[in-house]
Specification:
4-stranded antiparallel sheet; elongated
Length: about 180
């Protein structure tokens, strides 16, 4: 990937016609292998616009759904959006569905083990902290809320003792049904 184009060889992307893997990058073209078996050479400028539009569309849908959650006010959802991004980054990098019931605790352990994620966590705690509350209280609550949103799971048991050092307890999750 370079500053001008979002693609890298071996990376997975999509176009309106389907998902593909970049096989090669040659100047202003991409050779791609679609999931349905087709192989094509595509213009990198056109595919860059399509890919960015798809990502923008997905982000817009997520942000709209962000305001329909019932457990946070619209202002809290907007304010805690960076926490969602952190949790999404950790989930994407370290875990795959189906997630275990202690996924919130495991995500926090992963944050503690990664210096960049831990720096982001502490920066969010400093930014979102309010007078009369521990600085990390709002971030930890947002982690719990966004975990449900991102995993599609629901609370199973609250107040489970945490193995991570970021929070004292968390809610064990389960898949509904």
């Amino acid at each position: 990937m370079n500053e001008k184009y979002p693609f890298e060889t071996g990376g997975r992307y999509r176009t309106r016609g389907g998902d593909y893997i970049v096989v090669a990058i040659h100047g202003d073209t991409l050779t791609v292998h679609f999931d349905d078996g087709r192989e094509q050479t595509l213009n990198i400028d056109v595919q860059s616009r399509i890919w960015r539009n798809i990502l923008d569309d997905e982000l817009a849908v997520v942000r709209r759904s962000d305001f329909t959650k019932k457990d946070l006010s619209p202002n809290e959802r907007l304010v805690t959006w960076p926490v969602r991004l952190l949790v999404a980054d950790v989930l994407r990098a370290e875990f795959a569905p189906p997630y275990p019931p202690d996924i919130t605790d495991q995500v926090c352990l992963a944050i503690e083990a990664n210096p960049e994620w831990l720096r982001r966590y502490h920066a969010l705690a400093a930014e979102l902290g309010e007078p009369g509350e521990p600085a990390d209280w709002k971030v930890n609550n947002a982690i719990g809320s966004w975990m449900q949103d991102l995993t599609g799971m629901v609370n199973d048991k609250e107040g489970v003792a945490a193995a991570n050092g970021l929070m004292k307890s968390y809610s064990r999750l389960r898949y509904a049904g």
